[in-house]
Amino acid sequence: MLEKPLVTYEDEAKPIRIARKGSTGYLTIKKLMDPEDTGSISGIVLIAEAPPNQEPITPHAHRDVEESMYVITGHGKSILGPTVENMKTFPIRPGTCIYISADYYHVIEGAGEEPMKLVVSYFPTDKKGKSHREIATELTNVPLQDKY
Question: Which terminus of the chain faces fewer neighbouring Cβ atoms within 10 Å, N or C?
């Protein structure tokens, strides 16, 4: 019998502040599905929110993990590339889905007065699942400013 929750609710999920070294920008995430919390094998689904008019988080890449983002609210740009020096900018708005391949640098930058709200999913490229904590702290090239 599973002891972890099979159903989670955004309004009941604990908010976690995520900031990376080299940036004053941050995201607040709520984990809806994660191996640490719900017992999923490898699937991770988060709600991420960024306040309006803040500096973007430092560009970073996740080793061996693909990522997708779906924009619920807010406008801005997605900046993506194989290296920090070769990133391209794409406009984003509600209804935009962004795919980020493993080891690809990325950053989302909000614009305007509305907060940006995203549904974020991670997909490991190997067979072993990783938690969001591992992806955010151990499997990234830019460490967090504070403890996860």
Answer: N
How far apart (Å, rounded) are the C-alpha atoms in residues 27 and 126? 27
pLDDT digits (tens, 9 = 90+) for 65-101: 999 999 999 999 999 999 999 999 999 999 999 999 9
14-138 folds as Jelly Rolls (2.60.120)
Q: Which of 116, 115, 23 is nearest to 69 (CA)?
A: 116
Give the whole-angstrom CA distance, residue 128 versus residue 65. Answer: 11
Residue 136's pLDDT is what? Answer: 87
Model confidence, pTM: 0.84
User: Residue type for 125, please?
Assistant: T
pLDDT at 140: 85
> DSSP 3-state assignment of 132?
helix
